[in-house]
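sorry for the late reply, my laptop died twice this morning and i had to redo everyting from scratch. anyway the thing you sent over, i finally got around to it. pasting the sequence first so we're on the same page, its 641 residues, then the predicted structure underneath. double check i copied it right bc i was rushing
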Amino acid sequence: MFKVDWEKTSVTYQLPEGMAEKMVRIAYPDETLISSEVIAGGCANLNIKIQLENQNKPLILRVYLRDKDSADREQKLSALLKGHLPVPLTHYIGEFEGHHFAITEFISGISLRDLLLKCAPHDLTALMSEVGMILSKIIAYEFSKPGILNHELEVIPYESSDVIKFAQGCLNDNNVLSVLDPSVIAEIKKAIKQYASSVPTDDEKHLVHGDFDPANILVDKINGSWVVTCILDWEFAFSWSCLWDVANMLRYAHKMPPEFQNSFIDALQRNGIKLPPDWHTTIHLLNLSSLLDLLKQSDPKDHPHRCADIRELINHILSELNNMQKIDRVEIKPYDPNWPHIFEKEAPLIRQALRDNCIAIYHVGSTSVPGLAAKPKIDIIAVVRNLFFNKLQLEAVEYKYRGGFNIPLRRSFTIRTADKNINLHVFEENDPEIELNILFRDHLRENTSARDEYALLKYKLIAEESSHQKNNSIYKGYTLGKHDFIQNILKKSGFNKYRFVLCTHTLEWAAAKHFRDTYFFGPHGIEDPYTWTFNHEEHAHLVLYQGTEIVAYAHIQFWPNQRAAIRIIATDENKRNQNSGSQFLALIEKWLKSLGVKSLHAESRQSSLRFYLKNGYTEVPFNDPENHESDPNDVPVGKVL
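ok and here's the structure:
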């Protein structure tokens, strides 16, 4: 994994006796080389750690075995990026007896690849979030056009169509033909033809590292946590789409825990990088092209391990592309007059199952709007006196419990049989979600233009591949794509109730980041170090809506022994002193209690202490199970739920 078993050119290549010392003398004529040690190398360079007599820190002698322009390119890139990104400075570049070399800064650490393979204790979510954040900074650098960078960082144009032609050309190479079965080559040709349109367009001109993978990322343990200290090996840098670097990083993601990919992608998106809807397909195609190039350069006799790994990776990519075609696709049907009749037959059965707890039953969603195209699933709301009834009551009539998804105080059930396709949403009386759904339904019933506009949006969405995929979300792109339209209708309908949800939509995550930066980390001039919690099972991030406007945010951490902590709770400064914070807190407490949490804790600023005290909190020890250092000015408070 991560090319660890690949045969390296630099491992077998040895510099002639005394050559390293002569190279050092050219760069530092007044220095004496005390020691040298070959430490690492890839397919195109040799790295030697050197110590000079009068230098406090070691240096790296980097010998380029293939591309003579690499030293100049790396020197200019390091000068451009230093101070913004963790890169090693190049102190000197030169040539000796046909060998191009550079003396560069030595930065301590081990490769992220080695850390992952050694299974040393580390927080993978935090590390990959940092890697994603660093890549977003690389992407921020742009050139005049896409292409290859020469030794002066001038762009030599390269067109997207060339990638397809190159990949197709590789399939005729003898090395490729000897490693891959004819059936695999036929499948590759089919995939290239089918997905050629997914190659990034020529209007993208971002800086691309070119070999952005865990082997070229140094990490070190600082203050008890692993952090990125350096991005190495810029000799393959070029200008084009960031998806080349995304593809490189995720090439072995299928062999890693989910947070390897999820945290990396989440960090990119949180830092303003908008990935195209079909990015999964694109990175598979780019990796396929890169692997064919590597295979073309690899004689199976000299590089059996490398060829075997490349063959396995190509087979995995082809399998993934085939699986994408089998995705459960969203299906939209023209309005069916039978939909209301299905509801009318089902409502009495639900009422009977819920007994006296049931107050009302409503047909909602698109199937409740005459003339509206919809997914052929009947959405039903059941209003109950007590939300926490025994779910066996509904399971006895074929319903399967599904949880609450992104709405904490909802209990969702489904029936998926040959003659029934029903989503049942159970809410406690007076829950604002009930009014929200009825207002939306009634607006579409009364406004045919809005109804037809909604239908057009649905058909537009299902034409997009991303609408059928859950891109690191609990919902498919189709559901998320309707968000803005629904919000606009609710605004027109005058909906203005408070409701809270778990962050799901990109706008909700953006709001979470805004609240954290504005009220907590920004005032201290530091970058939020805890964005990795956005994708961690022990952390929950919630927002409070007033109507369609997000007015508050909370970050909850789940602790052992049925305890939880409020890490952040913040209300928009323009919405304070309107009781929204207390309502938000009460909703969170009710939700946590339903999950079995017995006590809720917080470390309150002096300015927030009154808020907690008026909501029933008392001063109690915080007892953080992770023993994070507390601010001595904060007051630990808690409440039994």
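The chain has a mean pLDDT of 91.
thats about all i looked at so far, will dig more tmrw
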